[in-house]
Specification:
By secondary structure, this protein is an alpha+beta fold. The protein folds into 3 domains: 76 residues, Winged helix-like DNA-binding domain superfamily/Winged helix DNA-binding domain (Arc Repressor Mutant, subunit A, Orthogonal Bundle); 69 residues, Winged helix-like DNA-binding domain superfamily/Winged helix DNA-binding domain (Arc Repressor Mutant, subunit A); 27 residues, no CATH class. It is built from 9 helices and 7 strands, in the order αααββααβααββααββ. β1 and β2 form a beta hairpin. α1 packs across α3 and α5 crosses α7. It is globular and about 60 Å long. The chain starts with a helix and ends with a strand.
Length: 191
């Protein structure tokens, strides 16, 4: 099969996939294709979209590839959508950050960091498919353990959790913004 035909098939698969599709999965579907070749084909498509200044681009997120419209068109797209964009309260963002950085984490551990009940917030994040139950801690009472989902990676444009900033990077960002960081209940000025 010619490379141009393989590229067209990859483009169709990435476009039609309901969630990011991996190079390995593309290689399973596209005739005479390996995961390395699939990745090359995706990169060629991405370069072509950029070269022709298309309204969409290829993203590598959640362990796969996805075609997304460019950010500059978000205002127009919001006018078409029936669903409201994902909005998270400060409490939800704080809880999501705790889960993302400390996972797997129990509700009690979340509440210890936030110093407030987190049950309703965790439930809301689960309903939005940003957090999921990943197991149970092997201690008395066997509390549920929570972790982030593939949807979390998609929403925040991350390929994997390894792309989350380190604590040092967060401290530097906070310092640059003149924010205050609370560590173990003690506020530290980072100005």
């Amino acid at each position: 099969m010619e490379r141009s035909e393989q590229r067209r098939i990859v483009e169709a698969l990435v476009l039609a996939a309901p969630e990011p599709i991996s190079a390995a999965r593309l290689a399973q579907v596209v005739p005479d294709c390996t995961p390395a070749t699939a990745k090359e084909l995706v990169n060629e498509l991405g370069a072509e979209y950029t070269e022709h200044d298309r309204a969409f681009e290829l993203w590598e997120v959640a362990g796969g590839y996805q075609i997304r419209t460019r950010a500059e068109f978000s205002g127009y797209l919001q006018q078409l959508q029936k669903q409201r964009p994902l909005r998270l309260s400060r409490a939800a963002l704080e809880t999501l950050a705790i889960v993302a950085f400390k996972q797997p984490v129990t509700r009690g551990e979340i509440e210890q960091v936030r110093a407030v009940d987190a049950g309703a917030v965790v439930k809301s994040l689960m309903e939005r498919q940003l957090v999921r139950i990943v197991g149970q801690r092997e201690v008395p009472g066997r509390p549920m353990l929570y972790g982030t989902t593939r949807r979390f990676l998609e929403v925040f444009g991350l390929e994997s959790l390894k792309q989350l900033p380190s604590l040092r990077e967060l401290e530097d960002l906070a310092r640059d913004s003149g924010l205050e960081i609370v560590v173990d209940g003690v506020a530290e000025s980072v100005m």
